[in-house]
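Notebook entry, structure prediction.
Reason for the run: the old model in the group folder had no record of what sequence produced it. Starting over properly, with the input documented here first.
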Amino acid sequence: VAAASGHTVVLVDQSDEILKKSTKGIEESLKRVTKKKFADKPEAGAEFIEKTLKNLTTSTDAVAVVHSTDLVIEAIVENLEVKNELFKRLDKFAPEYVRTIFASNTSSLQITQMANSTTRQDRFGGLHFFNPVPMMKLVEVIKTPMTSQKTFESLVDFSKAVGKSPVSCKDTPGFIVNRLLVPYMMEAVRLFERGDASKEDIDVAMKLGAGYPMGPFELLDYVGLDTSKYIIDGWHSLEPNNPLFAPSPLLNKLVEEKKLGKKTGEGFYKYK
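New structure, fully documented this time:
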């Protein structure tokens, strides 16, 4: 999305194999976008793909790349320790670049805790994009108590420059969307666990009664049950007395059985 809007992007990952797979995925995504965007102009579509891919290069060396970077967006595994390790390493090699801003795409972890692992707390914020990113317009821009106004404005401006609609939120668990969405999904699981309604009827009720495109169980399977469990476990450890953050025995059981949703072929539902 950043490359498509004219930004020079370096995609960093742990191996060339992963990067090849990622690049292929990006090309496929661009083809889908151009089919809709340039339905009557195939030549313009091909030009758009070519131009976008020219803006995109790959690397397995994050340290080498960070020297000339204005904005670092981290989107690795949802593990605070691993994220902090990465930010700490990058911070050492980008200290003289006052302009370099660090941002995390985390959906549930505290931005402040990540910022504290660096020397640039004033140049650190959250940029939470939503899946699928090419289609979803929203970006949550998270400002910690230490994020400077200039950094915050830069993150808002970047979000607009890539064609998104930014909303602002303080560094609170789950920000806006997930703070409301995750407890809603967990409450649906509890409703089912108690035997008050079937998961199928709960999904139908929320789609037809609340106008949601997916029911809570469909959404849990789409997000990944392991991801949902990780989020609720993290929040429960922060606020153990908050009933909204109570873990679910059923969710824990499914994750233990490696039934993680769509990505494994089975979660609350089975997939072919």
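Summary: Residues 8 and 173 are 32 Å apart (CA to CA).
The old model has been moved to the deprecated folder.
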